Amino acid sequence: MLADTPRPYTPRPSTAPEAAAPPIPATPNPTLPAPPLPEGAATAAAAGVVPGPEYNELGIRPEQAANALKAFRISCPSVQRRIDASGLTQPGEWAESCAAAESWPDRDAGNFFSRYFGTVQVGNGAAFVTGYFEPEIAASRTKQPGYDVPIYRRPADLIDVDLGLFSQALQGKKIRGRVEDSRFVPYYDRAEIERGALEGRGLEIAWAADAAEFFFLQVQGSGRLRLPDGSIVRIGYDSQNGRDYVGIGKLLRDRGELQPGQASMQGILDYLRADPVRGAAVMNENPSWVFFRELTGPGPLGALGVPVTGRVSLAADPKYVPLGAPVFLSLDRAEPNGLWIAQDTGGAIKGANRFDSFWGAGEEARALAGGMSARGSALLLLPRTSVARLMPQGL
User: Fold this and answer.
1) Is 220 within 8 Å of 134 (Cβ atoms)?
2) Is residue 137 part of a domain?
3) For residue 167, is it within any domain?
4) Lower CB count within 10 Å: N or C terminus of the chain?
5) What CATH number did the domain enclosing 382 receive?
């Protein structure tokens, strides 16, 4: 357990690769005037939308539009099968743009988005954007000295329950847990799993070398395992134990154990490694645990079941953004500004205009994602039929 009186952490020189260049500042577009958020609004439709400018007024670079079109195209089959939890689009409204995307030339992507999409702002439009990447950590297929942190696949006794099947009042709510003595109980939390709750069940995909690095791989939701022989195994999110995610960076800042400027991913890693016992206790304050599966072929995979693309794919809350929708960001950092595609979700990505930007793999991606914290405005690009239907209703 942590001491009752927090002591500020004094960082040692980091052994991490040299950080990327400092953030490039930018001036975000102002948000659009919007009515107050209705009390209790839990979806984009309930929060309300206001019409935005035409695509051609956004100043999106041709290469950004081309990359976004490629990502949108591979998302289309999943987009058209999903029920849109945001309430903004209805079945069939993606059909026209998805059919056109199949053969539309990437070099003319700007005209594609201009023709088939209108823009809307959800709620007050005030955006907050963080970053994630595909980490690579050292691991072994067998448990051995230096490799003793288990990486688990999904257990058979982890059960998903759709509460909406039991009550109309619980529509859209789901929980995860397990059955114990004929009772449905919460699944093991991080501390219980760390103490061996899943040992001896043959669930291990591999064993990681560094508990703190694996902790952050769980936060990212996918990654690469570098085995002792140099080969690479890719793993992706399969499920989670149903426990709420707790951001340990905020905990440490609130306690005064990390000073301003130390709460980046690398700063937190240095803190966790400085005292492994203290670090393990802090990590266990986040009860969430992620289970993985091995990936073959393109990846990592996002929540739509299609590969996510660095500098193109966003994680969003599906209650506020239809997964597969293009998103335009205008922020106080230049690097994430432009057109993205919402292809993923995240345990900490909740609420309107909250996004997590994916930067790919490698040290540059790690540096950008680890230090990403940007604010500004966001617009969703929706099929024109959806926008036309929403506006007369005064949403």
Assistant:
1) yes
2) no
3) no
4) N
5) 2.40.40.10
